[in-house]
Amino acid sequence: MTAEVFYDDDADLALIQSKKVAVLGYGSQGHAHALSLRDSGIDVVIGLPEGSKSRAKAQEQGLRVLSPAEASAEADVIMVLAPDTAQRSLYADAIAPNLTAGKALLFGHGLNIRYGFITPPADVDVAMVAPKGPGHLVRRQYVDGKGVPCLVAVEQDATGTAFPLALAYTKAIGGTRAGAIRTTFKEETETDLFGEQAVLCGGASALVQTGFEVLTEAGYAPEIAYFECLHELKLIVDLMYEGGIARMRYSVSDTAEYGDYSRGPRVVDSRVKDEMRKILSEIQSGEFAREWIAEDDAGRPNFTKWRAEGAAHPIEETGKKLRGMMSWVDRPITETA
Ligand SMILES: NC(=O)C1=CN([C@@H]2O[C@H](COP(=O)(O)OP(=O)(O)OC[C@H]3O[C@@H](n4cnc5c(N)ncnc54)[C@H](OP(=O)(O)O)[C@@H]3O)[C@@H](O)[C@H]2O)C=CC1
Ligand SMILES: CC[C@](O)(C(C)=O)C(=O)O
Ligand SMILES: [Mg+2]
Ligand SMILES: [Mg+2]
Hints:
Blueprint: E1 5-6, H1 14-17, E2 20-24, H2 28-39, E3 43-47, H3 54-60, E4 64-66, H4 68-74, E5 77-80, H5 87-95, E6 104-107, H6 111-114, E7 125-131, H7 135-143, E8 150-156, H8 162-172, H9 175-178, E9 180-183, H10 185-200, H11 202-217, H12 222-251, H13 254-267, H14 270-285, H15 287-297, H16 301-311, H17 314-323
Bound molecules: NADPH dihydro-nicotinamide-adenine-dinucleotide phosphate, ligand LWWEY6Y5 and magnesium ion (MG) (2 copies).
């Protein structure tokens, strides 16, 4: 089935400009949505708990900050951009008591709706605007006059205008400059989790670290291993981004292209593909979501250990030293792009 893709001319900004929007959370996605909504002429208020360290950042950016409950009470449109693991209790404590008929409840990712951790009442719109990129780049692209593609979905259309409203929101954060694809909460949630686990984050990090380990354990210089397995990956992926795998293969040497065809499938072989299928089935059954919520409820013991191990991997120390010599590479991640 061909996807329906919407661009700027398909979206009516006035639909969201006439609403008050509460953005709950001011992290990677929250700051990007809030600042770009404001710059698109929308009345936006931020909802953050007392004591949240994000409060100062939002206020420094000139945004009005209230508690999540106060912001939800004021708003017509409530965008939930707190961590996925915090959304259940945020919804129960702050949003639900203020979710009156006709309001719109929006998400940046479908996990809590897809797996039933949140069940909104039937008289509100429930929709999603999910950028297909990290929040800091969502903001940077908006500021640069570009945009990150977004997935847009409607779970519940109480007003009959949920989709055009979500599309207007997407336009306000730059998404329809690049393309907004209509989907469902189920499809977004399952493909997003699969992508980040098997390819974009899990797969790519493991590939880079393992390549670095093989070269350094064989006695090659860590600096050379870093450039080969991490730094140059961006340059190769840039070519894929611009013109697909075919353009990358056009630009590399025939020697590299032959190595690609003959060796790549030995690295990502049928065992890896079977494991990817297993990962997908854990996502589809809800096993992954239940595991992650339980890990968070238990205080994140594995997450904390794995984060520390990742930060201590030798590739990080080598990279820090080398990036220090390339002022144009270590572009800081900021709230202003
Ligand atoms: N990161 C990304 O680029 C992407 C994220 N998404 C989705 O966007 C959503 C937000 O993720 P992300 O931006 O990564 O989150 P972050 O972890 O970057 O930021 C979370 C923000 O929520 C605040 N927060 C924490 N608890 C609460 C609460 N109870 N009520 C209100 N605010 C709270 C945090 O404040 P404090 O400073 O106090 O911690 C912080 O400002 C998730 O659904 C995620 O799946 C979708 C696409 C990409
Ligand atoms: C790839 C990770 C992501 O899904 C994203 C930036 O799109 C996320 O959840 O952060
Ligand atoms: Mg994603
Ligand atoms: Mg994700």
